[in-house]
Amino acid sequence: MNTAEITIPLGQLVPSKANVRRVNSEAGRAELAASIEAHGLIHNLVTRKAPKGAKFEVVAGGRRLGALRLLLDEGRTVQGVAVTKDYPVRAIMRDEGSDTEISLAENDQREPMHPVDEVIAYRDLVEQGMAAEDIAARFGKSVVTVRQRLKLATLSPRVLDAMRADEVTLEQAKALAVSDDHAAQEAAWFEQDGWSRNPGSIRSFLTSAHVRGNDRLARFVGVENYEGAGGGVLRDLFAADELTFLTDRPLLVKLASERLEAVADELRPLGWKWAEISLDGTFIHSGGFGRIHAVRRDLTEGEQAELSALGAQYDELAEAIDAHAEGNPQLEADEAKLHALESRIEAIQNAAEAFDPQEMALAGCLVSISYDGMLQVTPGLVKAEDRKALAVLQGGNEGYDQDEADEAGHEETPEVEATGMSAALIEELTAVRTAALRVELSNRPEVALVAILQALVSRVFYDHHHGRIEPAVEVSGQRRNLVPSIKEPDACRALTGWNEVLEGWGHRLPGDPADLWLWLVTQPQDVLLDLLAVVTAANLNAVVARHEPGKTRIAHADVMAVAVGLDMRLWWTPEAAFLSRLSKADIAGVMREAGCTDDAAKAVERAPKSEGVLQAEKELDGKGWLPAALRAPFKVESESLAVAAE
Questions:
Q1: Are residues 53 and 82 in the same domain?
Q2: What is the number of structural domains in the chain?
Q3: Which residues contact 141 (CB under 8 A, 6 or more apart)?
Q4: What pLDDT band is residue 580 in, cutting at 50, 70 and 90?
Q5: Judging by DSSP bridges, how do beta strands 56-60 and 13-15 pair with one another?
Q6: Claim to verify: residue 362 and residue 472 sit in the same structural domain
Q7: Residue partners of 174: CB distance under 8 A and separation at least 6
Q8: Which residues fall within 8 angstroms of residue 116, CB to CB, at 6 or more apart?
Q9: Do 445 and 370 share a structural domain?
């Protein structure tokens, strides 16, 4: 085979149709162009004289030709020399052999660089004095990518050797790089079982003693303040949000405690029996505290007048900001004025509330950190040893008995609906409603999250001092079977819809329960939220069964029904199977309530039962009538919860 090394003007080079690379032929062109710009064309193109004209076909090196054309189009240079159509490109001229064979040989023999060799090369460039920004520019990479490569280069030599032997994957290496401690890296890999070597478990192992930068304690102190006090920080460059870990927990606790204690010192002279701090976010709920509440007085005429004037100013300014937000040079100043008005309004309203000094002498303030890392002062807490004295003060109740107070929270059996419907029929209707509510809840992960938290938090944070709580979502990991409560389950639309939800997920989950954990940790958050909604719905119990307590449970189900916008008219209609279980008088009552004529109702009462049921079914068709057990609640005890969940 005859070959010759020549230079050919860039404008005379065209890609050969025989080039075997079809997939990813354009991949990495920008990076390759940056490399050629900085280092020149390291590998020659392989060309052949085109059958016609003065052109040359590039049979091997199509990506390099594409990169050179990109430099030409963008007016760039190669090692300082402008790239024009006349730019001389080094090439090897071949006149024998198949073009396809030549192209295949070049691509088939090309071996990609091992990741370990690549990161070590980046490290060597830095050690030779090249900045990460310069490396990024010369190789067409982002600065973040270069820094990630350099981070991997800091792994333990033992880990890098294992990675070079393909025992450690790139994702596992990224997880190990969250720590700079070689001993910790080696312990996380060589001293752990195989099942603990997934990236999530590795990160957890290496950061278990640290505090996440988005933790409430870290947000309260502030990462900058913590670092200013000498605290160490780890940054996970490979996480989507660049997770930060604070390594000195004792220092973080000290800084947080000092800030909380300063606030407590300001509260102690104000008449409270005590003012204490707590870093435990659950202490306020688990401490068995009673509460006293501020008494609100009427505003004075002066306060009311000022409040009205401030409200008018606030509304006027808010409207002006909304109308002229874009291009308003005074926007920042106007927003500051709005905030000042808001603060003054709040100050006037707060001034109208005050605690009774005698009650304050038995109560205190807890200074803590809220879930979102903000300062939280909770006034009016009464410790267990002071609750009896407070009860005597408030009501002269010298016979105060804690056991009697606890009994007040016991649940009662819900009353049976006085409509002529049997307890069995009410159970069936509420089972149908539960199935429908499960379907709706499974489609609303944001509401399911509130529901499952309400159930879990009530069990964890509220003891018997707060009264017995029975949420509608029964967090036991088991689901109540609705089929026994429904006479004709196969004909129930709601139950069919719920079974379809379960079947859909049954096909997605791993067949072996032992594989469930690894499957879960690899799923994106939106999938986990959708699954959370389904399992929360599966634990929902809004069935009113005979001799079964659960008044608050049903009330909580009503809250969720409002939050998800449950409309039982989409899931149930008064068909013959339901009507046949009522007396003719009750059927006529249903018809009148639904808006049917009195004559139609009387005709059903006079007709034989079987005929009356069929006639009533026709009359009720399209009326949208629902029995009370299926109607939307007119009054929800925790309406604010329903609104918050929307």
A1: yes
A2: 3
A3: 31, 34, 135
A4: confident
A5: parallel
A6: no
A7: 148, 152, 199, 238
A8: 160, 163, 164
A9: no
Is there a single domain that holds both residue 430 and residue 499? yes
Domain boundary among 381, 407, 433: 407
Q: What is the DSSP string of 516-577?
A: HHHHHHTS-HHHHHHHHHHHHHHTB-----TT---HHHHHHHHHHHHHHT--GGGT----HH
- The half-sphere exposure of 573 on its side-chain side, counting CA atoms within 13 A, is 14
Instruction: Evaluate if residue 419 carries a pLDDT over 60.
Output: no
**Considering only CA atoms, which of 211, 210, 207, 228 is closest in space to residue 219?**
211
- Give residues with Cβ within 8 angstroms of 202, minimum separation 6: 172, 175, 176, 178, 188, 189, 192, 196
- C-beta of residue 339 within 8 angstroms of C-beta of residue 355: no
Domain that holds residue 479: 423-572+626-645
Any domain includes 471: yes
| Tens digits of residue pLDDT in 281-308 | 656 665 678 888 887 777 888 888 888 8
Single out the residue of 358, 363, 369 nearest to residue 263, CA to CA: 369
Q: Give the list of residues 6+ apart from residue 367 with CB closer than 8 angstroms, or none.
A: 260, 261, 263, 264, 267, 275, 276, 277, 278, 375, 376, 377
Alpha-carbon separation of residue 539 from 9, 501, 558 (angstroms)? 74, 14, 15
Question: Of 60, 81, 109, which marks where a domain is finished?
Answer: 109
182 vs 201, higher pLDDT: 182
Residue 48 is part of a domain; what is its CATH number?
A: 3.90.1530.10
Residues 393 and 512 in one domain: no
Task: Compute CA distances 532 → 186, 442, 505, 646, whole Å.
Answer: 35, 8, 11, 17
Give the separation between CA 422 and CA 581, rounded to whole angstroms.
9
Distance CA 314, CA 579 (A): 58
Work out the widest C-alpha separation in the chain, in whole angstroms.
113
Band (pLDDT 50/70/90 cuts) for residue 211 is confident
Give yes or no for a contact between 49 and 8, defined as CB atoms under 8 angstroms apart: no
Residues 378 and 456 in one domain: no
Q: What's the whole-model pTM score?
A: 0.42
Q: Is there a single domain that holds both residue 452 and residue 378?
A: no
Same domain, 558 and 433: yes
Return the pLDDT at 455.
61
Residue 413's pLDDT band (boundaries 50, 70, 90)?
very low
